[in-house]
Amino acid sequence: MGRPGIDFPGFGCGLAIMRDGKLLLCKRLKAPEAGHWNIVGGKVDHMERSELAARREAEEESGLSIRSSRFLCLSEQLIEADRQHWISMIYVTDDFSGEPQLTEPDKLSDIGWYDLDALPQPLSRFAADAVRAISTHTKALAGAV
């Protein structure tokens, strides 16, 4: 059957969680992109809608309760070092409750809020794509005022 992302392109999801202009990021311990800072997310299960998967993964990884989210962007990642290929639907939210906690210490080593202009490095491709989409959206809204 094969492994998603390794034997064939995997279908993933991510959720950019925003609070007071800051983005929630976590540091990955495992491939793909071990040591990179990423938004919360993971694999979409068979017959699971990607938006619901993003919210589920966010709740599992952060301990937050996600009330709603909206589509932000699509991201494709070819990770030569890990020989992985992922395509992910990325969503965004500021509609949640709780405080983030490191709930999966076997997968993540750190979690915290970061200003968009002072992000830790290195960023994962998914996180970089999310930041770019948030920045583009914010600039478009500012120009419409």
TrEMBL record:
The protein's name: NUDIX domain-containing protein
UniProt entry keywords in alphabetical sequence: Hydrolase
Keyword Transport: no
Pfam families assigned to the protein according to its UniProt record, in alphabetical order: NUDIX (PF00293)
Annotated InterPro entries: NUDIX_hydrolase-like_dom_sf, NUDIX_hydrolase_CS, NUDIX_hydrolase_dom
Source species, domain of life: Bacteria
Cofactor(s) required for function per UniProt: Mg(2+)
Domain Nudix hydrolase: 6-136
GO MF entries: hydrolase activity
Species this chain originates from: Ensifer oleiphilus
